[in-house]
Structure prediction request, 232 residues.
Amino acid sequence: MIPPFSIPIYESPAYVLSGLTFPQLPLDTQHYLLDTAKLVPPHAPHLNTIEREYRVICNALVSSLVENNKALVASRLEALVMAYDFQRENPPQPSAEWHETMQERRLRTVFDVLLPERELIFNAFMIKFDALVWLDQERYEDYTPEDWQRYRDALLEPILDYTNRQLVVLEERVVNRSESHGSHSLALPNPPYSLVSSYRQNTTRARSRIFATRRPDSRGVWSRGRRLNRHS
Prediction:
């Protein structure tokens, strides 16, 4: 029986941009907003502009993870092949020492190269993602730092889930193909990468989570988080 595939879990940093003015933002964030995304503060751009940039950075994230996903799955398949070879009853088979050496080498590659590389990819994405969340500061009234943390985490959750699913799907396809063909060659699929849910859908879901944690005021309306007029 093949053991389950352990997905590397990305721990996102805390959202620390709440309440900051543009000059107070980290330099990487300022550079992204001004020079890369061309989203110039202090006036929040139209929602369509943020949504377009959201799609750009999500597509870029998925593309950046392709080679890392392939390498992680290749390492997974290598481990399965080594276990299969070691358990064969018919000689010739490599020695236990050889298997131990190869396993240590494989794990060093995973933990010293592939996982740090993956974290760097996500960290670079988070600079851009949090910058887009920061742009929404002028759109909502009286959000607390805790509200912004929940809002950002709710926006981020489907993206992380999506990238995890892509890795799981790739691993399942490779392992299943290897088993069905009786071969241990790495046949990597190249599935079309569809975008995650739209920015508008995710922001609506995120705001709903914030409102669910609050009590309505005596007039029966939410006392905080009211939508401000959009800048055109």
In short: The helical segments are 27-36, 47-87, 96-135, 145-180, 199-212.
